[in-house]
Specification:
The structure holds four protein chains of four kinds.
Chain A (H helix, E strand, L loop, with lengths): L6 H6 L4 H22 L9 H11 L10 H20 L15 H22 L3 H32 L4 H10 L3 H4 L1 H14 L11 H4 L9 H26 L6 H21 L5 H33 L1
Chain C lengths: L1 H13 L5 E3 L5 E5 L5 H10 L4 E10 L2 E2 L5 E3 L2 E10 L2 E10 L4 E3 L9 H11 L2 E3 L28 H12 L1
Parallel strand pairs in C: 2-7, 8-9
Antiparallel strand pairs in C: 1-2, 3-6, 4-5, 6-7
Chain D lengths: L1 H5 L2 E5 L11 E7 L2 E8 L7 H5 L4 H9 L6 H16 L5 H29 L3 H22 L8 E2 L2 E2 L5 H27 L1 H7 L7 H6 L4 H6 L6 H4 L20 H25 L16 E9 L2 E9 L5 E7 L1 H13 L7 H7 L10 E4 L7 E4 H12 L1
Antiparallel strand pairs in D: 1-2, 2-3, 4-5, 6-7, 7-8, 9-10
Helix pairs in contact in D: 3-4, 4-5, 5-6, 5-12, 5-14, 6-7, 7-12
Classes of the chains: A mainly alpha, B alpha+beta, C alpha/beta, D alpha+beta.
Chain lengths: ~300, ~140, ~170, ~400
């Protein structure tokens, strides 16, 4: 489906800014609710994330002593902007991407990393011990999951022969679901996504029992709310990306909702199944297992394409 | 050595009723033996004052209206009470009991936590006397 | 009986320092020793692997006055070192006067005793010589010097009373 | 950051910290993620109970001491009651002793399950935390139906117990024990086989037998290191003479061993509870005891869920005790933390702290507000309270 709307509307209302933020909060609710159900709890009601966010936005923002003020205030905005910008290149909700060009996959991946970078900087900016440790952990974790995650998303791109997300979407929609063709890639992508979003068991950077809230310990009010929204938007993008790449693409809203929900169920189950990994375990896991598997998948794809060409 | 041992329980939990409940809207029934608010029967009381003496949190005040005719009024403070039931145990005349109703206690005022037990005319008499200036309440030994 | 064996062997270990001993219960032995003998006594218990230190209890024995308000017996502090081996408990007791409440620390023999020693220092005002750490453990940092809450003479903090009065005057 | 490099990088855990649901302050000096030094500061919850005991009579003390701890309230009361009964030369009837043991074992189940959940939470395993606490509700409900209160059961009185078990209750408890046993077996499987969890427990915080002995570790912490310390076995008290228990011992001494020891103790508790319910003799549950306790000193030791609980009671012949000394098991085990912590990763610290099942409780508050427009102001608890009352008037 194609959307022919004014670019400003695309940017600000749908599928950009306003819509994304709201759907992000809805995703957060779904995440919390599903985890709660897995843990045999009732879970929050649907408006809980909205209420939390509104409350946070209305609260006083305390700027701690000894921080770089402009950076402190700007980082949440940059993080959110990065996430929102990335969303513009993704066929959101079954509609075609608002903007696209050849190679936008790379841009999206980099835009998604803005979040982690901002969190790392935010942590290093404040003087609290928890934030510094949190920032170190967040960045360490970023270096470990980034490569396998990238590899896992590159293999479908290579299979499709394009770096344009929209075209990959059409490719996966027309062919066999890539989860069947590249199961390893799918696993690495899902687990990488969880690492990227710092979901349990990869939540060492914000392990509340050790370092309170990690890099964001000193944030309050608006800054914290923006970071939260940013993270939720990233959750939306990440899930959508995996659906596009591995679950046969999205052609219409119903397909989008169903496939996202299915993936969500898997992700939340994984979230509630494991104990938190220590940061050294996370790094070890990713470099020893994740990266190797991703690489293997990539080689298999390249080899497969090569074989296919020879046979043809 | 396994990964995801909990998987079976996760699936089970998804399809069973949650263990938690929507508290103020659904309430559990208090068990029969629950030690809730104290109940006092003035007809049986002989005024041995043991309950007052041994109360660990001074939640009981037994006010004497007329010692000879065994007229007593109990001023009970549920907010101080620790619900240990020591007074119930001590009372040889069974005039103290703990009910299992009313176990959720919250109030914005202190007045709700001052409960008078006794014959109505005794309480009225006491309150009237307390309202008069200059005359103190009867001593509660 | 095993019970008696342990107590007997403990008594043998400590024999040379015992000034007075008492058995109040079948599994208990209280022995009084002089202050300077405490450390060797504890040392020999540990060396012979006789049980472990349960805790150090402080006791306050306030001064006794006759009817003319003359001090018959000065105020004393007593420290009880409870050692347990299975069911048997040996209590080593040392008495020190208020004026010189000094006892040797046993932390170099039993490192975990530091927590009990800090407790009796704070609450009773013992002076434990060479104890590794004398920082406040239990009481707040702002607690006044020389006020020991578990002595019988302590009833309440004076300045707390006054600060309350000031507040009500506001 | 150059300055921070020179000085020590200290990570404070507590007094207010999400890892500790109760206040206590630990300072870990870290180098990167590796802990190089550890120190402890307690007393944020010191309520002066020992002093308060001297101004109340024995009955009131019983309830005061029960409130030393919100988790193991029954053992505190039992230790005190046993001591006072010994002083007074009174022996509680056998049925009362059996009911005391029954309550103590139920409490041990609830305490171990609580600890298990908290430890899982410290490891970031929230699902296991929720599941254990869900199952713990079963034993909490038993305690509530049995005694009338979920936390402070107040089963003991001087010279006996307050509550009695009837056939209906006993059937209910037996049924629930079967359910809990099944669940415990399941958790045992999770703890000993789940890889992610084992990664956090196996080989972490190993306490050798000699160190455990020297540092005076007690309870499951000591038993996980192979030290045979269990008052229920070493010096049976109350109903344990009639209903003996088996000591659970593990040799490894790491966190996994502590999990295993505690879970195995649960099996032992289930067995004991069933045995008590089968064999309990009908009879009186109270005896009379004088208000004035004769002069004397007594030492009373019981096995709390966390280890040996020690009471020293000195009476002077009046209605009030002269001195009550309480030594809680957690105090003994602190030493093992500071000893073991060095060399581990910061991420292991909450698990290590949880490993000994620490127990404190709360009351020390201060807030410091600094702003550019107003001068610095400090508020203590009283001030804050007053401010709060004024604010909402």
């Amino acid at each position: 489906m194609n959307l022919s709307l004014h670019p400003l509307i695309l940017l600000l209302i749908f599928p950009g800014g306003l819509f994304l933020m709201n759907i992000g909060l809805l995703y957060e609710w779904a995440d919390r609710k599903l985890v709660a159900r897995f843990q045999s709890r009732v879970g929050p009601r649907w408006f809980q994330p909205f209420a939390d966010t509104i409350k946070l936005l209305a609260k006083e923002e305390i700027i701690p002593n000894g921080v770089h003020k402009i950076m402190f205030l700007a980082l949440p905005i940059i993080a959110l902007t990065g996430a929102l910008t990335a969303a513009q290149y993704i066929p959101m909700f079954g509609f075609e991407a608002s903007f696209s060009f050849e190679g936008d996959l790379i841009v999206v991946l980099y835009m998604l990393s803005m979040m982690t970078l901002s969190i790392g900087l935010a942590g290093a900016n404040t003087l609290s011990r928890f934030t510094i440790i949190g920032a170190t952990r967040a960045l360490t974790q970023m270096f470990s999951y980034e490569a396998p995650f990238l590899l896992a998303l590159l293999s479908p791109a290579i299979a499709a022969g394009t770096w344009n997300i929209g075209k990959i979407n059409t490719f996966t929609g027309e062919n066999i679901w890539l989860i069947l063709a590249q199961p390893i890639g799918f696993i690495v992508a899902v687990v990488g996504l969880m690492g990227k979003l710092e979901l349990p068991p990869f939540d060492a950077p914000e392990a509340e029992t050790e370092i309170v809230a990690g890099a964001l310990t000193e944030y309050s009010g608006r800054g914290l709310a923006l970071f939260h929204i940013g993270k939720n938007v990233e959750l939306v993008i990440g899930l959508t990306l995996v659906v596009i790449f591995y679950l046969g693409g999205i052609a219409n809203p119903i397909e989008f909702i169903l496939k996202s929900a299915g993936l969500f169920l898997v992700v939340t189950a994984l979230q509630s199944m494991f104990a938190r990994l220590r940061i050294d375990q996370t790094v070890g896991l990713w470099w020893r297992l994740g990266a190797l598997m991703g690489l293997l998948q990539l080689l298999a794809i390249i080899f497969g394409r090569y074989l296919g060409e020879i046979l043809r | 050595m396994a990964i995801g041992v909990l998987f079976g329980d996760l699936v089970k939990a998804l399809f069973t009723k949650p263990a938690t409940q929507n508290y103020p809207f659904t309430k559990t029934i208090a068990p029969e033996r629950l030690r809730g608010k104290l109940v006092y029967d003035p007809e049986k009381c002989v005024g041995c004052m043991l309950c007052m003496k041994d109360c660990p949190s001074n939640a009981i005040e037994l006010l004497t209206v007329d010692k000879i005719n065994k007229k007593f009024v109990m001023r009970y403070h549920p907010d101080r009470c620790v619900f240990c039931a020591q007074c119930v145990q001590l009372c040889r005349f069974n005039c103290l009991n703990m009910s299992n109703s009313l176990w959720e206690m919250a109030s914005t005022t202190k007045e709700a936590f001052e409960v008078y037990y006794g014959r109505e005319e005794d309480i009225a008499f006491l309150l009237e006397r307390a309202a008069q200036p200059g005359i103190n309440e009867p001593p509660c030994e | 009986m095993e019970t008696i064996k342990f107590l007997e062997s403990g008594k043998v270990i400590l024999e040379k320092w015992i000034e007075r001993s008492r058995t109040t219960d079948e599994n208990r032995l209280d022995i009084w020793i002089s202050t300077e003998n405490l450390k060797p006594a504890v040392q020999s218990l540990v060396e012979n692997h006789w049980g472990y230190l349960i805790t150090i209890t402080g006791l306050d024995i306030p001064a006794v006055y006759d009817q003319d308000n003359i001090e018959i017996q000065p105020g004393q502090l007593e420290a009880l070192y409870h050692f347990a081996n299975d069911a048997d408990i040996i209590t080593i007791r040392v008495k020190v006067p208020y004026s010189k409440p000094q006892i040797d620390s046993i932390c170099d023999i039993i490192p975990s005793a530091t927590i009990y020693e800090r407790e009796v220092i704070e609450l009773f005002g013992f002076d434990l010589l060479n104890t590794p750490n004398t920082e406040k453990l239990i009481l707040p940092d702002s607690w006044p010097e020389g006020v020991y809450p578990l002595r019988k003479s302590f009833t309440h903090l004076q300045d707390l009373e006054t600060s309350k009065k000031e507040q009500s005057n506001d | 950051m150059t300055e921070a490099k020179k000085e020590k990088f200290i990570v404070p855990i507590g007094p207010q910290h999400p890892a500790l649901k109760e206040p206590g302050n630990f300072e870990f000096t870290v180098d990167g993620e590796i802990v190089t030094d550890a120190a402890v500061r307690l007393g944020f919850v010191h309520r002066g109970i020992e002093k308060a005991c001297e101004n109340r009579n024995y009955t009131q003390d019983l309830y005061l001491l029960e409130r030393v701890c919100g988790i193991c309230s029954h053992v505190h009361a039992t230790a005190f009651v046993l001591g006072v009964e010994k002083l007074a030369g009174v022996q509680a009837p056998p049925r009362a002793e059996a009911i005391r043991v029954l309550a103590a074992e139920l409490e041990r189940i609830h305490s171990h399950l609580l600890w298990f959940g908290v430890a899982a939470h410290e490891a970031g395993f929230d699902t296991l935390f929720m599941y254990t606490w869900r199952d713990r509700e079963v034993v909490m409900d038993i305690l509530e139906t049995l005694s009338g209160s979920r936390v402070h059961y107040s089963v003991n009185i001087l010279g006996g117990v307050k509550i009695d078990v009837d056939q209906k209750l006993s059937d209910l408890i037996k049924k629930d024990m079967d359910f809990l046993e099944e669940r415990t077996e399941y958790y045992m499987k999770v703890v000993t086989t789940d890889d992610t969890f084992l990664g956090r427990t196996r080989g972490i915080g190993t306490l050798s037998k000699d160190r455990a002995k020297l540092l005076g570790a007690v309870g499951p912490t000591a038993r996980a290191s192979g030290v045979k310390r269990d008052i229920r076995v070493n010096a049976p008290y109350s109903g344990y003479k009639e209903f003996p228990v088996k000591m659970v011992i593990d040799q490894t001494g790491d966190l996994e061993a502590r999990f295993v020891v505690r879970l195995k103790e649960l099996y032992e508790s289930y067995r004991l509870i069933r045995e008590i319910l089968e064999k309990i003799q009908p009879g009186e549950i109270t005896t009379r005891i004088k208000r004035k306790i004769p002069e004397g000193e007594v030492i009373s030791r019981v096995e709390a869920p966390r280890g040996e609980l020690f009471y020293y009671i000195k009476s002077n012949g009046t209605e009030m005790p002269d001195r009550v000394k309480v030594r809680t098991p957690s105090l003994c085990n602190w030493g093992t933390i500071t000893d073991v912590a060095v060399g581990h990763k910061l991420a292991d610290m909450p698990m290590l702290l949880a490993g000994i099942d620490p127990c404190f409780s709360c009351n020390d508050r201060m807030v410091e507000i600094r702003s550019d427009s107003q001068p610095s102001q400090m508020m203590n608890w009283d001030g804050l309270r007053k401010y709060g009352i004024e604010y909402y008037r």
